[in-house]
Amino acid sequence: MRGRTALPPAPLQMCYNKGLRPPRAAPHKKGAPMAQPHIAYCGFNCAACPVFHAAARGSSSQRQLALRYSASERRLLPGQMDCADCRSSTPAVFCAGCAMRACAGARGFAHCAACGEYPCAIMKKSLPCGSAGRAAPDALR
């Protein structure tokens, strides 16, 4: 891929790569119905992702996230910190080139772990066995 800059990994994977713990989802309120967590194709819980909520917090929050998640070879802009989810018709910059998203979406699976070929070569390359990020999709099996 000469002349093309690789897209940075999704924010939750960057948390894991940097040894950070991703934020926890909001606690369940007693008596309220349990909402199903939004699970991305890769198996991550979108409700635990700060970028998923960045637009609601405003531009200051988006600016901070852009700086925190920028890869050294590619800077992210605050406007790129707006993510509806990876199933959106206009995915965030870090979801657009995701091989797991493309494969699971094309095959009609809710997430990679639902596929009979799991873990495939794409999963092994994106989230190696034993990595912190691999725990989420493995838990869905």
Kindly list the characteristics that best describe this protein.
mainly alpha, 7 helices, 141 residues, elongated
Strand-helix topology:
Layout: H1 11-17, H2 54-57, H3 59-69, H4 93-96, H5 99-107, H6 121-126, H7 135-139
Rg, Cα atoms, Å: 15 Å
Portion in strands: under 5%
Briefly note the structural class of the backbone.
mainly alpha
DSSP strand tally? 0
Uncertain spans: 1-8, 15-35
Number of separate domains: 1
Pattern of helices and strands: HHHHHHH
Count of alpha and pi helical runs: 7
Largest sheet: none
What is the straight-line distance between the termini? 34 Å
- Assign a percent range to the helix content: 25-40%
Mean pLDDT: 72
Q: Which term fits the overall shape? A: elongated
Describe this structure in words.
The protein has 141 residues and is mainly alpha-helical. The protein has one domain. It has helices at 11-17, 54-57, 59-69, 93-96, 99-107, 121-126, 135-139. Mean pLDDT is 72; it is low at 1-8 and 15-35.
What does this entry show, briefly?
This protein is mostly helical and 141 residues long. It is built from 7 helices and no strands.
